[in-house]
Automatic annotation (TrEMBL):
All residue ranges annotated as the Enoyl reductase (ER) domain in the record: 8-336
Stated name of the protein: L-idonate 5-dehydrogenase
EC number: 1.1.1.264
Family: Belongs to the zinc-containing alcohol dehydrogenase family.
CDD domains according to UniProt: idonate-5-DH
Class of the enzyme per the UniProt entry, highest EC level: oxidoreductase
Pfam families assigned: ADH_N, ADH_zinc_N
Cross-referenced PROSITE patterns: ADH_ZINC (PS00059)
Length: 341
């Protein structure tokens, strides 16, 4: 089978690997679509993503969907041809969460994630024609949800989790700062959850055009001189840029809530944070998701259309072009056709 493998910074290859065999508790999936994420780009560009550093070649990809091929011993209920997506996380340390974190499985201290070098041996991702997946990580696609849509369930789950962290958004006015793929999906998720209005802000006109298609009532082009609004009760910060935090905090109303969904750097960075205190802002983190991937599939089944977030599609042999496009200024979500069709 073919797989998209990063060997080091700037070294991406589409190479042949042995076909996987389903072991106890596993299901082999013929992957059809995969979405390129920022972590995939970071491994490709830097040979690392955050503190996770490549030590061996790694198959990229955690936003994937395909169809069941075969089941291993002890697995029932997954007929060949069943369309599925994958919950890419599983706890790696066997620990039990304390009562205060009950159900918040994204907060286990050690989590193995598809396409991650956080552990050694690394955890290969799903950018391959075939992948053996633990059956408990599979999620069946509802009728009417294609595998291309299924590949968007993981990033949509991130957005839905961020919206859940904000509490009840029904009837509320929302600001989303940062209109990359996750920010645009937060726009869609907030509208789906009943937000009265959503304003999206970014430096890129093309990104804002996607946000508009996904439901933003108004867009602000900061790169062209637009200013963030004042007194926003509920703000989602999706850019992950420390330099943006001062302005975003100032835009948040006194006593308002700011949900941080954009990944901030793990190293020291200057940021103006004074308004966090003087405006008594509630600043909430949003990390990955718990079971919102199932919520995402329900939303897609019920008609939530996020297809506008996809700006480019490439075949598996064009993986290098796909990542280059995803890193460029004029893309949102880039998909790779993993089936070779």
């Amino acid at each position: 089978m073919r797989a998209v493998v990063v060997h080091g910074a700037g070294d991406l290859r589409v190479e042949e690997r042995p076909d996987p065999v389903a072991r106890d508790g596993e299901v082999v999936v013929a992957m059809e679509w995969g979405g390129v994420c920022g972590s995939d780009l970071s491994y490709w560009k830097n040979g690392a993503s955050g503190t996770a550093v490549l030590r061996d070649p790694l198959v990229l990809g955690h936003e994937v969907a395909g169809r069941v091929v075969a089941s291993g011993p002890g697995v029932t209920g997954w007929e060949p041809g069943t369309p599925v997506t994958v919950h890419p996380a599983q706890a790696a340390d066997g620990s039990v969460l304390p009562a205060r974190l009950a159900g918040r499985t994204n907060l286990h201290s050690q989590v193995r994630y598809f396409g991650s070098a956080a552990f050694h041996p690394h955890t290969d991702g799903g950018f391959s024609e075939l992948r053996a997946v633990p059956a408990h990580q599979l999620r069946r696609l509802p009728d009417g949800v294609s595998t291309e849509q299924g590949a968007l369930a993981e990033p949509l789950a991130v957005a839905l989790h961020a919206v859940h962290r904000a509490g009840d958004v029904r009837g509320r006015d929302v600001l989303v700062n940062g209109a990359g793929p996750i920010g645009c999906l937060v726009v869609a998720a907030a509208k789906h959850a009943g937000a009265a209005s959503v304003v999206a802000a970014d430096l890129s006109a093309s990104s804002l055009a996607v946000a508009k298609e996904l439901g933003a009532d108004r867009v602000l082009d900061i790169g062209s001189g637009d200013q963030l609004p004042e007194d926003c009760e509920l703000v989602f910060e999706a850019s992950g840029a420390p330099a943006a935090l001062g302005g975003v905090l100032r835009a948040t109303a006194r006593g308002g809530t700011l949900v941080q969904v954009g990944n901030l750097p793990g190293t020291a960075a200057p940021a103006a944070l004074g308004d966090l205190v003087t405006r008594e802002i509630t600043w909430v983190g949003a990390y990955r998701f718990v079971e919102e991937i199932s919520d995402a599939l329900v939303a897609l089944r019920d008609g939530l259309d996020v297809s506008a977030v996809v700006t480019h599609r490439f075949d598996i042999e064009q993986a290098a072009e796909a990542l280059a496009a995803a890193a460029g200024p004029d893309s949102s979500k880039v998909l790779i056709n993993l089936s070779g069709g």
